[in-house]
């Protein structure tokens, strides 16, 4: 997938099993690029980029929420204030448990340096359930990521011990407006529910972004998604989980993969299932980030003569083919 400041994404996917029962490459006004491994810069379909110009993103849609169930029955239900900031269903929590098992079995839980989450109840429940520490017990001298029974879930508190840092970011919220399920609570309320999540990047306690009579346009969501991806390059972390929403993911990613095989485009852009995880690599091809490589080594230490044979052959063709 490609954004136009030149990042690229490589894709691998976890889709949960149901439980019981850009140009165009750089057509965007920016310069990030997401791409799949089969992104074709050469006739052989291969691409090569410096490692320090890359970040690995593990993109997750939240687990099943009560709004998903009611909206499936009747689309008008999405407009009901009974679904304000909808939390996870019991089935959704089972989906969280399954994805958590996958993340641990695959080794992902040991590699993720940061978890970014949309500040809504269903996404934060999913994020801490999948990437958080063990169930919280008395005597642990760290704040819990989630207190017990948040959202009447019946779930025990979740510890932040041995978990990566969690940051709430408004840029990766779902479509804004009209649907109460996409309206957040006051940040003051969330701080009591999720003590170890960092809400410092959210400027307003109240939700001033959600409007009862104006629904954010698809192209506005896509533009917000590109802004979010650019913001990621201000972060030093190289392997990041992002727990967000179906609409945000679909519209943000749909601009990418147009230069790829159709199957690769589908891997990037199709709608996410509840609690689906797709791992991708975003590549900075436009020098958005400024991180230096931690693994490159300059050579010539100590300094010495090092004229390559092929260069010597070009400089002195009378000497014939160099060995």
Largest sheet: 8 strands, mixed
Helicity range: 25-40%
| Helix-and-strand structural type | alpha/beta
Radius of gyration, in angstroms, nearest whole number:
23 Å
Strand fraction: 5-15%
Strand element count: 10
Described by its quaternary structure, the protein is single chain
Number of helices: 9
- SSE string, helix = H, strand = E? EEEHHHEHEEEHEHEHHEH
Rounded to the nearest angstrom, the distance between the terminal CA atoms is 42 Å
Give the uncertain stretches in residue-range form.
Answer: 1-8, 16-31, 35-44
Based on Cα principal axes, name the global outline: globular
Q: What number is the mean pLDDT?
A: 85
Explain this structure.
The protein is an alpha/beta fold and 323 residues long. It starts with 11 loop residues before the first strand and ends in an 8-residue tail after the last helix. The protein has 9 helices and 10 strands. Strands 1, 2, 3, 4, 7, 8, 9 and 10 form an 8-stranded mixed beta sheet that branches. Strands 5-6 form a two-stranded antiparallel ribbon. Helix 6 (218-232) crosses helix 7 (246-253).
What order do the helices and strands come in, and which of them pair?
Elements: E1 12-14, E2 33-35, E3 54-61, H1 66-73, H2 90-105, H3 108-111, E4 114-117, H4 121-131, E5 144-146, E6 158-159, E7 166-168, H5 187-193, E8 197-198, H6 218-232, E9 239-244, H7 246-253, H8 262-269, E10 277-283, H9 309-315
Parallel strand pairs: 3-9, 4-7, 4-9, 7-8
Antiparallel strand pairs: 1-10, 2-10, 3-10, 5-6
Helix pairs in contact: 2-4, 6-7
Tags for this model:
single chain; 323 residues; alpha/beta; eight-stranded mixed β-sheet; two-stranded antiparallel sheet; 9 helices; 13% strand; disordered N terminus
């Amino acid at each position: 997938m490609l954004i136009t400041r030149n990042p690229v994404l490589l894709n691998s996917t976890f889709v949960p099993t149901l439980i019981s029962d850009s140009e165009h490459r750089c057509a965007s006004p920016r310069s990030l690029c997401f791409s799949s491994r089969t992104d074709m810069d050469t006739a052989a379909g291969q691409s090569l980029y410096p490692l320090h110009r890359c970040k690995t993103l593990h993109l997750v849609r939240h687990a099943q929420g009560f709004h998903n169930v009611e909206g499936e029955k009747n689309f008008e239900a999405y407009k009901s204030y009974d679904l304000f900031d909808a939390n996870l269903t019991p089935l959704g929590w089972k989906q969280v448990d399954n994805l958590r098992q996958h993340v641990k079995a695959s080794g992902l839980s040991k590699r993720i340096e940061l978890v970014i989450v949309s500040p809504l109840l269903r996404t934060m429940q999913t994020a801490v359930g999948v990437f958080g520490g063990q169930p919280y017990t008395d005597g642990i001298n760290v704040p819990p990521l989630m207190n017990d029974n948040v959202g009447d879930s019946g779930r025990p508190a979740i510890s932040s011990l041995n978990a990566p840092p969690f940051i709430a970011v408004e840029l990766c919220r779902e479509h804004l407006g009209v649907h109460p399920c996409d309206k957040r609570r006051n940040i003051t309320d969330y701080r009591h529910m999720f003590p170890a999540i960092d809400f410092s990047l959210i400027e307003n306690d109240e939700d001033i972004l959600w409007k009862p009579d104006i629904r954010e346009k698809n192209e506005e969501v896509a533009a917000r998604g590109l802004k979010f991806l650019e913001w990621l390059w201000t972060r030093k972390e190289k392997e990041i989980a992002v727990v967000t929403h179906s609409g945000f993911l679909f519209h943000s990613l749909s601009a990418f993969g147009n230069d790829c095989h159709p199957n690769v485009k589908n891997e990037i852009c199709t709608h996410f299932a509840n609690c689906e995880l797709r791992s991708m690599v975003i590549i900075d091809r436009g020098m958005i980030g400024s991180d230096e490589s931690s693994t490159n080594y300059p050579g010539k230490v100590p300094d010495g003569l090092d004229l390559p044979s092929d260069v010597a052959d070009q400089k002195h063709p009378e000497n014939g083919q160099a060995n």
